[in-house]
Design brief:
Elements: H1 3-9, H2 16-20, H3 33-57, H4 64-71, H5 76-92, E1 97-102, E2 105-110, H6 115-121, H7 132-144, E3 147-148, H8 149-156, H9 161-169, E4 173-178, E5 186-190, H10 192-197, H11 210-221
Antiparallel strand pairs: 1-2, 3-5, 4-5
Helix pairs in contact: 3-4, 3-5, 4-5, 7-9
């Protein structure tokens, strides 16, 4: 068979680029495995940005479990890892805000050194101020909870029912049960909002004072 007959009866010649895309068996070559691996960081970074958006849009702490649920992170542990990465980015870039762990969750907050300017921006109507009597009552409950109204008044030396009601309305205190004492008086304790308002992760972050240390130790020993 002549060379001309061979070319006339055979398949048309392939473009060199088409040949390069085929393996020896005639199938398209598989993509480089490195390409698939490169997509993993991109997916993780997107999840991190979703978590960042969630923290930015929330006015209250969000738990790691909830962040994982909404952002499609694998679990709360991965959500925590991504939160730490975000915080490291903010620190490295010298941002005026950061992520704080408060009341069992994470919240995006301005850094404390910028507080004077932030407070100037807030109107007086927005600022929730507490009287010295309210702060004293709140401290007594925080350190000695669960505690009854009579016990609070015994410490303060004055009637405190109206202050307790006001603190409950502000969601800083709540009724946590009833005492076994005569008349079954209500027991008061602090709330999650209390931790958030004072920037604490838990009650263990309360400053230790000589006035309340003995009552705390006595409760822990029970």
């Amino acid at each position: 068979m002549s060379e001309q007959d061979h070319h006339g009866g055979g398949p048309p010649a392939q473009d060199p680029e088409q040949q390069a895309l085929q393996s020896g068996s005639g199938q398209v070559a598989a993509p480089d495995s490195g390409q698939a691996e490169a997509e993993l960081p991109a997916a993780s970074d997107r999840t991190k940005r979703v978590i960042e958006a969630l923290l930015f849009s929330s006015d209250r702490p969000i738990s790691a479990g909830r962040l994982a649920e909404v952002s499609a992170a694998a679990d709360g542990r991965e959500a925590r890892r991504l939160v730490r990465e975000l915080q490291a980015e903010y620190v490295a870039e010298g941002r005026a805000f950061g992520i704080e762990e408060i009341a069992g969750g994470f919240q995006l907050l301005s850094r404390s050194e910028f507080a004077p300017w932030v407070l100037q921006l807030q109107s007086r109507h927005q600022q929730e101020t507490l009287s010295s009597a309210a702060l004293e009552t709140l401290a007594i409950v925080a350190y000695r909870q669960p505690i009854t109204r009579a016990q609070v008044e015994d410490v303060r030396g004055v009637q405190s029912g109206h202050i307790l009601r006001s603190l409950v309305e502000k969601r800083l205190l709540k009724v946590v049960g009833k005492s076994q004492e005569l008349g079954r008086p209500l027991l008061y304790g602090t709330t999650r909002h209390f931790l958030q308002a004072f920037g604490m992760r838990s009650l263990s972050d309360l400053p230790r004072t000589a006035r309340f240390a003995s009552s705390q130790e006595a409760r822990q020993g029970d």
